[in-house]
Amino acid sequence: MLTWDRRTDQQQVRTTAPNGVTAYDIEPDGRHFWWFDANPAGIGLWRRQPFPPTPSDPTTPPAALTGLPPGRQAGIAFDASGGRVAVGIGTETETRCYVGRPGGAGQLVAAAAGYATLVDLTADGATVALAGRADSDRAISVVHLSDGRLDVVAGSPHRRIWALEFRPGDRSHPQLLIIVETPERYQVGTWQQDRGIALAAALTYDTEVTAHWYGADGQVLIQHDHAGRSRLLLADLTSGEPATIATPPGTILDLTCAPGGEIHYVWTTGSVPPERRVVAPGTAAPGTAGPARPTGTTRRSELWTTQPYGRIHSFLATPPGAGPWPTLFLVHGGPSLHDRDAYDPRVELLVRAGYAVVRTNYRGSTGYGPQWQRGFDQRVGLAQLDDLTSVRRHLLHRGVAAPDRVGLCGYSWGGYLVLLAMGVAPADWSVGLAVAPIADYPAAYHGTTAALREVDDELFGGGPEDVPQRYRAANPMTYLDQVRGPLFIAAASDDDRCPPGQVRRYVAALRHRRVPHQLHWMSGGHLGDAASQTRAFDELLRYAGQALGPDRTRAAAADGRPYQPTSQGGR
User: Fold this and answer.
1) Which partner from 5, 124, 306, 335 sits 20 to 30 angstroms from 494, CA to CA?
2) Greatest Cα pair distance in the chain
3) Is the dihedral of CA 245, 249, 252, 255 positive or negative?
């Protein structure tokens, strides 16, 4: 983890966690920062360190709250003074919320069955909010710490409710900022104990938004994501249309508000790596930490593929010169994520190697509205493959993709789609490259985390025992007899999201059927640690070159035999 002092511009690496740090926060007075120290399986505890460092700092920082069991990180929040903190810790069966003074003992104040997330702690430290599944009867749970009283806000499949944060400085009647999703739109609003939900009519959007309180006067900062790009808006909940804040076209990855009102945000485009920028509402142009620095000679464009159910949006990156090119679909995971106008070093490396790279926001992706995200009749995997196949045909028609040299590359749920496609439509895809995939869906369901089981419950409408036919239709194992390969599969030995055991069974079945493949093992948790990720990508790129490179077609034509990679097995 890197800390940065804005006054001195000094940056220091402050942690030695081998797998990096995925959760962190800074106390309100800026004197200490917290980070979640987790093992490869995601189990760990919060640690607390001074900022800046002192010579007497221990080698291993102390626990930030004592008396807590190890578990999964499930949220953190401070009161206005920093004198009280709340953290969420996930166990195998429940999520627990602890409250205490930083550095002191934590007290258990709430527990929720299954997976939940600590959303926020009020400014006076008297009330906490927990979020469950947005469509459940416990979408939001508000716990009043003085007497343990509980308020519950129920969602439904047709009215999902997302909790965001408490209004700062509001002590007498805590006001919780929320998003309400219906099948048609998203709406910003608030919840209060004595008033219930109040929605702002002017703050209604057709695609995803998130929001933050801006100051203590009831203004709200809104980030609206549409078709892979972001915009910022500032609005009053009770009056008028929101005002647009001047930010350049592209994607905003993160943001925060400084005490003086400036908005610090991390901005990127497909050709510009992420960089910090600053903007003050009402200014004509955004400030920046430095000029935008486009990289490489990659040509970028967008593709809209029209289908009866809507238009499929893809980002396309191609090498210099004329096509058609060997083409790789870089398939995003989630599925509730989306590819954006954002820098991805994998795209640069693949284009430099001579590939056209396609990033398609198939049905199930965010950023295109509720119907696009959820309206595929629980045809999990199969609907997404329909979209990828449609885009493939479009690229062939336009002369972008070289026939018989189109492959799939995906990570996590994207890797799952790769394996599924290689069995469902083997004639369409020349190679499959899957990193940390789901290879056996029912087995992955039972071996993954509680949070991801809830995602699958919503995606399929239940677990494998509830709707077995849906899991069978979506399971790569179902189509093993149709898989031709070649396939490159990388898996992590300590992956708690896409467990390694189910990958081993899939690969053993490939070996039994003599399907050309290579299995590469990574160390660490989901997607592997940094060093093993690099090694895996190097192997992936080499394997793709064997399958799709310029010599492949000539060699196959010379002796009349279909191409097979040199590696047909793996450890």
Assistant:
1) 335
2) 81
3) negative
